[in-house]
Specification:
The complex is a heterodimer of chains A (114) and B (111). Chain A has 114 residues and is mainly β. Chain A has strands at 4-7, 10-13, 19-25, 31-38, 42-49, 56-57, 65-67, 73-78, 87-94, 104-105, 109-113. Chain B is 0% helix and 60% strand. In chain B, strand 4 (29-37) and strand 5 form a beta hairpin. The chains are: A mainly beta (114), B mainly beta (111). At the A-B interface, strand 4, strand 5, strand 9 and strand 10 of A face strand 4, strand 5, strand 9 and strand 10 of B.
Chain lengths: 114, 111
């Protein structure tokens, strides 16, 4: 099993450009999450999904959109990138068994917006 | 606002010593988890403690939970160079489906 994979690993965008980050998991997990990590800020939840076809907002959803058309994939979109979105983005998934839920993380995508 | 807050923000100790990190949170939780992040990598789950548990062990790790004080501690015994990493607590509240992470403790093990 590959676990959780993210593409791309690195990306540089100019302000106003758009892009999509792809997260894939092969563990048949129900829940998937997108976080951003900035220095001194820990991980902040952007959006999450509790199952195929569902999405919900996290702590910092503005400027991002997501889609979960297939259970194994969770896409994060930036419609018009801004320098404030320069960050490391992590995807995670979890099986969602009550009271024993743990998250499995991808390796991250380092995004720079100029 | 941040649900979990780790303390201290950074910690340097000699190899072989014990390292203790604390996490405080604000609202009632279902469980609390600790994760480790090596530089440039994703987070790795270490241990989960449920709200009805008070202490849990896993190898050199010992986690305690005090729900009356809304706090948890992570103890790493006999530290090794490979323990150098950032450690995060994450809380799952009983209000929604989100897991919220703290800002982390950066642990540096000195040779």
């Amino acid at each position: 099993n590959a676990g959780v994979t993210q593409t791309p690993k690195f990306r540089v965008l100019k302000t106003g450009q758009s892009m999509t980050l792809l997260c894939a998991q092969d563990m048949n997990h129900e829940y998937m999450y997108w976080y951003r990590q900035d220095p001194g800020m820990g991980l902040r939840l952007i959006h999450y999904s509790v199952g195929e076809g569902t999405t919900a907002k996290g702590e910092v959803p503005d400027g991002y959109n997501v889609s979960r058309l297939k259970k194994q994939n969770f896409l994060l979109g930036l419609e018009s990138a801004a320098p404030s979105q320069t960050s490391v983005y992590f995807c995670a998934s979890s099986p969602r068994r009550d009271y024993t839920d743990t998250q499995y993380f991808g390796p991250g995508t380092r995004l720079t917006v100029l | 606002s941040q649900q979990g807050e780790e303390d201290p923000q950074a910690l340097s100790i000699q190899e072989g010593e014990n390292a203790t990190m604390n996490c405080s949170y604000k609202t009632s939780i279902n469980n609390l988890q600790w994760y480790r992040q090596n530089s440039g990598r994703g987070l790795v789950h270490l241990i989960l403690i449920r709200s009805n548990e008070r202490e849990k062990h896993s190898g050199r790790l010992r986690v305690t939970l005090d729900t009356s004080k809304k706090s948890s501690s992570l103890l790493i015994t006999a530290s090794r160079a490979a323990d150098t990493a950032s450690y995060f607590c994450a809380t799952e509240t009983n209000r929604d489906d989100k897991i919220i992470f703290g800002k982390g403790t950066r642990l540096h093990i000195l040779p």
